[in-house]
Amino acid sequence: MSAPRISPRAFLRSAGSVFLKDWRSELRTRYAVSALLMFVVTTISIILFSLGSEGASPDALSGMLWVVVFFAAMSGLSRTFVMEEERGTTLTLQLLASPGAVFFGKLLFNLVLVTGLNVVTVLLYAAFINGFVIRTMSIFAVTVILGSMGFAAAATVIAAIIARANTKGTLYPVLSFPIVLPLLLSVIEATRKASEGAFFSEAAGEFQLLISYTVVVVVASAMLFEFIWKD
Amino acid sequence: MNGRIQIAGEGLRKEYNRRTVFRDVSFSASSGETLLITGRNGSGKSTLVKIICGVLTPGGGTFSLTPGPHDPPRDQRGLIGLVSPYLQMFEEFSAMENLAIAMGIRGLPFDPARADALLERVAIFPRRHDPVRTYSSGMKQRARYAFALIHTPPVLVLDEPMSNLDGEGIAIVRMVMADQRRHGILVVATNDLSDVDTYERRVDLNERA
């Protein structure tokens, strides 16, 4: 094949169009948003009923917040690839776009989705769960942003892997857990520090780990995606 | 290079789960020629079509596409258009939106006037703003032709080109095929051998199992 490779500008337009296609599709079907929101509301309600009038320690509440985020993300983020497979449009996308453009378009879509999910989850969690107090807002805000990026990066490549499996629903959280474990431990620890009122610099270690995690997952995924996507 | 776009397969082989679908398949075609791919069900016609379109990697051998000097400077995806019953459009969008999406994802500018002309040509213009999921199977097949031609590909690949089409649809496809023969390469995978005399090149996969 001696045809020229796609220019950087065309690549960006291609990835942006994959994102826009998914975004407009989501606005019409609301499939992922509905699944995510229902999961968040249901899970927070269960936590609320379980705790009753009794409080829980800030450590436990910080962990529970990210348990809600993890399972909610697992219920909705795989849709971006699973839907293409179920509708038979995987081949269509393979014909239209380079694997890299598909990956970064889907990554951007998942990033927007998981950031929105995290904001809604945090607002609902803070509003309804007694005892969940954030004393250092800067640590918490950075944690949510970096956590969203890490979740989106891991969720995108795992969704691409499981999209062709027969047991998509169960395989997704099972495969995701060991991969997002370093991310989960870091965001839980950073959230605990935010709730205890630690100085911003005290969470630098967690932030470094979150940034490194996201960079490694995105770079490794971008390099491997063609092999996952093509055959 | 002789100034015309060329495709060539050399010793192509494909296996699925250790079962050899075909082996030692070689062919070539250049602009103005038609390549016919025939073979019984399961002989690998669609597999070979996917290898030509660059979405499947052969188990062995090579496939090459060499653009001519007058072809647009695009990667392989931008030089090939595919029509096939198993190629699904984005059904929540209209035919018009699908054409815009296809051009956007290809990284190319969208020309609404060309999209109108194509949808007129395949006779689904009055329904161009309806979601594709509301189309009949024949209308979807017609829409696939507009989807495959919107970027004016120098190589047009048709897998079972007359599938689901009525008499009017078949006449439209014959015109599309004749037009493609004039300015590019036409690849047709089918068991319908009624027009076999009009194909310059032929690959019979029954001989390659």
Describe the 3D structure.
The complex is a heterodimer of chains A (231) and B (209). With 231 residues, chain A is mainly α. Chain A has helices at residues 8-29, 31-51, 58-76, 79-87, 90-96, 99-128, 137-162, 168-196, 204-230. The mean pLDDT of chain A is 89. Chain B has 209 residues and is α/β, with parallel strands linked by helices. In chain B, 29% of the residues lie in helices and 25% in strands. Chain B is built from 5 helices and 8 strands. Chain B has helices at 45-53, 95-106, 112-121, 137-149, 167-183; strands spanning 6-16, 19-30, 34-38, 60-66, 80-83, 155-159, 185-189, 201-204. In chain B, the strands form 2 sheets. A 5-stranded parallel beta sheet of chain B has the order 5-6-7-3-8, with helices on both faces. Chain B has a 3-stranded antiparallel beta sheet with strand order 2-1-4, covered by helices on one side. In chain B, strand 1 and strand 2 form a beta hairpin. In chain B, helix 2 (95-106) crosses helix 3 (112-121) and helix 3 packs across helix 4 (137-149). The longest helix of chain B is centred in the last third of the chain and has 17 residues, at 167-183. The mean pLDDT of chain B is 90. The chains are: A mainly alpha (231), B alpha/beta (209). The A-B interface holds A 1-7, 9-11, 13-14, 16-18, 20-21, 24-25, 28-29, 87-89, 91-98, 101, 230-231 and B 50, 53-57, 63-67, 73-80, 82, 86-93, 101-102, 104-108.
